[in-house]
Amino acid sequence: MKKTFLSLLGSVVFTGLMAQTVSEKLQKAFGQFEADSQMRHAISSLYVIDASTGEVVFDKNSQVGMAPASTQKIITGVTAFELLGKDYRYKTSFGVAKNIWPGCFYIKPSGDPTLGSWRWEETGEKSLIGMIRQHLEEKKIGGLNNVFVSMAGWDNQPVPDGWIWQDIGNYYGAAADALNWRENQFDIILKSGSKIGDSVKIVGTNPKINILKLSYATSAAKGSGDNAYVYYPLNTPYSGLIVKGTIPVNEEKFVISASLPVSQLQIATVLMDGLRDVFSDNMKLSHRAKTNYSD
Fold first, then answer.
1. Rounded to the nearest 5 degrees, what angle is found at the Cα of 31, between the Cα atoms of 30 and 36?
2. Are 185 and 259 in contact (CB under 8 A)?
3. Which positions ≥6 away from 174 have C-beta within 8 Å?
4. pTM of the prediction?
């Protein structure tokens, strides 16, 4: 009986010490985080609970209202799992409207955020082109001259109210649309000068984007980092983009990421380039159409 009591007491003390150690470690780590010079004028918050007991392990500023930024993705992810289920799959339909519009290749979007994403082989551009080619060859279909994106049931304005102008041209400000491509972002490759104040040139994009691209960015001190921002004038991405701000001097291929303008146009270009033997040279795109139709 005595041994059992001592063992139980030892277990309780040991568990308490472990919990105390975790709290102390979090306190120390958070203190170091707050002491960073970049946090001099900022407010930070951290709230940690034990998932099995619900006990609060660490709490600092949990009741202070702050902009959630990317942590809001956690809420979005959990909500999607709860409402859609872990086995839910987006379904984007591709087909040929023979009877309604001869020579028309149509796309019926589903809002899939992974279509064309480079992060997984099965969602990438090569996989998509391969699957479409296989089906077209099996059906012996060719001579297509139009890509039609059905927008029936979808909002024509993908950018929500209240988004700030400095964000929406950059990758973290990419809007979620009915038809998304490559996570609605692309890279801009910049070249800076050898002196502070020199002009910065746009030397390329990945993937290729067929719109006007202007740079008003300048070269800054070495080690100054990425302080370049992308803007779409008058919220009309068809007209082109502008790069402002600074990047460090002596950079040959400095990469910044921007939001993809008009994903429908980009995916149509990808289809035309990847299936040149299927599409005719005068291929056109009908995008954001509201008309709905059956196969």
1. 95
2. yes
3. 168, 183, 184, 185, 259, 260
4. 0.73
